[in-house]
Specification:
single chain, 397 residues, alpha/beta, 8-stranded mixed β-sheet, 36% helix, 25% strand, globular, hydrolase activity, acting on carbon-nitrogen (but not peptide) bonds, Metallo-dep_Hydrolase, Metal_Hydrolase, PhnM, Alpha-D-ribose 1-methylphosphonate 5-triphosphate diphosphatase
Length: 397
């Protein structure tokens, strides 16, 4: 049975109250199923009306034929973690890190973000995986409550199955913490993302500076943690997601059997399936497929897994995440548009589809009554030029 999906009201889901009036006119509006020349009006943070034609009323912004589309919805980004730890073992002051993260996302057209925070720690000092999520979540929620954030923020808890403290850390969160997504992450070496141990060795040696001996100990430790806690942590994380009212996501599904387990857990969408077999099984089991924009832009996975473009060609790609490059999200929509020859379908992968997967019914499309999260986008060849960002009717970029 699927986990309950939170239906966020505009009051709960927003960051700041809406602004006054805004009209973007003489624009190519990217609607759900077509592109239409017209104008869109926002009143007090909500879309008030859409009209066809190139007329520019007094006081309106003349978009001169630029696209106007919904603000981007980001379900999985490690960008906040990158700001608080810009180098291994460097703990940057959290308030300026949060504000810089928020501003960076706004500048790339992301108006809704689920900030990914790891829960589940390892006490091995060489691994340096300590607890941090509860403290950082408190700081982020406090900054939001004070009205300092430009865009709408939710939490995404990355539940590390191979850890010692997962359930203890998840117990510190509750239904009032804006936890919208819980993803089940099993990074046991030799399977899922790190089937190739050499790829894992390269990753941790660069990020953590491990020697060969340290790496061997790290692999053995993770395998032992999976043996001791894997089943218990998976069952507990699924239960905690339901307690929060969060959507459940799988991570790095590789086989059809793993997808069946994801379905039984109540997973709503799959993050970064590593094979076309797994992506096909996701669709067969009613699970939306999310891939990374860097994979799409680069033409392949840095871990040697299935290419996002292969899934797109096969009709198995539903959602795109910026993952570790925020600016890649808007670029990915135009790349998909070129691949598919269908801009509305491509834009839906970074707006409507992720909003739906996360249970947000008040954004992701250009329609009256929805949030005034808008982008004005020109083009230089096939490259999008972001010319304006509005979050809840307020200009933020």
């Amino acid at each position: 049975m699927n986990s309950p999906i939170p239906r966020m009201s505009p009051a709960r889901a927003g960051g700041q109250p809406g602004a006054g009036s805004l009209c973007l006119a003489n624009a190519r509006l990217v609607l759900h199923d077509r592109v239409m020349t017209g104008r869109i009006t926002v009143e007090d943070g909500q879309i008030a009306g859409i009209a066809e034609g190139d007329r520019v009323p007094g006081g309106a912004v003349d978009c001169a034929g630029d696209y106007v589309m919904p603000g981007l919805v980001e379900l999985h980004t490690d960008n906040l973690e990158r700001h608080i730890e810009p180098r291994p073992a460097v703990d940057w002051p959290h308030l300026p890190a949060i504000l810089a993260h928020d501003g960076e996302l706004a500048s790339t057209g992301i108006t809704t973000v689920f900030d990914a925070l790891r829960v589940g720690s390892i006490h091995d000092s060489k691994a340096r995986y300590g607890a941090y999520a509860r403290k950082l979540a408190d700081e982020l929620l406090a900054v939001r409550a004070e009205g300092h954030l430009k865009i709408s923020h939710f939490l995404h808890l990355r539940a590390e199955i191979c850890s010692e403290t997962l359930l203890e850390e998840m117990a510190q969160f509750g239904p009032d913490d804006r936890v919208g997504i819980v993803s089940l992450m099993d990074h046991t070496p030799g399977q899922r993302q790190f089937r190739d141990l050499q790829a894992l060795r390269t990753y941790v040696s660069k990020k953590r500076g491990m020697s060969d001996a340290d790496f061997a100990d790290h692999v053995a430790n993770l395998k032992e943690l999976q043996r001791l806690y894997g089943e218990l942590h998976q069952i507990g994380a699924v239960a905690e997601a339901r307690r929060y009212g969060a959507v459940l996501a799988s991570h790095d599904d590789t086989t059809a059997e793993q997808v069946v387990q994801s379905r039984e857990n109540g997973v709503g969408f799959a993050e970064f399936p590593t094979t076309i077999e797994a992506a096909g099984a996701c669709h067969a089991n009613g699970i939306a497929v999310m891939m990374g924009a860097p994979n799409l832009i680069r033409g392949g996975s840095h871990s040697g897994n299935v290419a996002a473009s292969e899934l797109a060609h096969a009709g198995l790609l539903d959602i795109v995440s910026s993952d570790y490059v925020p600016s890649a999200l808007l670029l990915s929509a135009f790349s998909l548009s070129e691949l598919w020859g269908d801009l509305p379908r491509a834009v839906a992968c970074v707006t409507e589809n992720p909003a739906k997967a996360a249970g947000l019914t008040d954004r992701g499309r250009l329609a009256p009554g929805l949030r005034g999260d808008l982008l004005r986008v020109g083009q230089a060849g096939q490259t999008p030029l972001l010319r304006g960002v509005w979050s809840n009717g307020r200009r933020v970029g």
